[in-house]
Amino acid sequence: MTNTSRRVLYIEDEPDIVELVRLILSQQGYQVDGASGGKAGLDAVRQAPPDLILLDLMMADMDGWEVFRQLRADEKTRSIPVIIITAKWQEFDRVRGLHVAQVDDYLLKPFSAKDLVGSVERVLERRVNESKAGK
Predict the structure, then answer these.
(1) SS3 per residue for 33-87
(2) Which domain holds residue 97?
(3) Number of structural domains the chain divides into
(4) Residue 93 three-state SS
(5) Is residue 70 part of a domain?
(6) CA atoms within 13 A on the CB side of 117
(7) pLDDT tens, 83-97?
(8) Which of 22, 53, 73, 93 is the 20 to 30 Å CA partner of 102?
(9) What letters, b where the CB count within 10 A reaches 16 and e where it falls short, cover 20-46?
(10) Is residue 82 part of a domain?
């Protein structure tokens, strides 16, 4: 699967950040869609499941952890990889995300283009390898 056939959904209520991520990832061949807030994000995932979800934790309409919980509770969306992108920098938040909730990765704002692309590529490659291994 080439990057051009991979669709990423960024659930984030700040349009400028969505545009920045769209610019960075589109240069690598990814199709990036944005959803403004948790409710819109859940609707977008259910209408057209992406290959990967980027998820902010602090949104006005719905907490990112609640969005994540609903994604994992739904059989149709539970296997979609999720990368948290957040300004919540405390170690507790990172441990909660990676080890308790078991998100696929956790990036802190501000992030570099290199870190974003690297995270997306690692997570998607890991999913391809898991699929090949029959997991």
Answers:
(1) EEECCHHHHHHHHHHCCCCEEEECCCCCCCCHHHHHHHHHHCCCCCCCCEEEEEC
(2) 3-129
(3) 1
(4) helix
(5) yes
(6) 14
(7) 999 886 665 555 555
(8) 22
(9) bbbebbeeeebbbebbbbbbbbbebbe
(10) yes
**Contacts (Cβ under 8 Å, ≥6 apart) of 90:** none
- Chain segment 5-54, per-residue pLDDT in tens: 899 999 999 999 999 999 999 999 999 999 999 999 999 999 999 999 99
Tokens of 93: 């938040």
133 within 8 A of 111, measured Cβ to Cβ: no
As given in the structure block, the two tokens for residue 30 are 């990814």
Q: What is the pLDDT of residue 99?
A: 45
Which domain CATH number covers 81? 3.40.50.2300
Q: Is there a domain that residue 23 lies in?
A: yes
* 94 in any annotated domain: yes
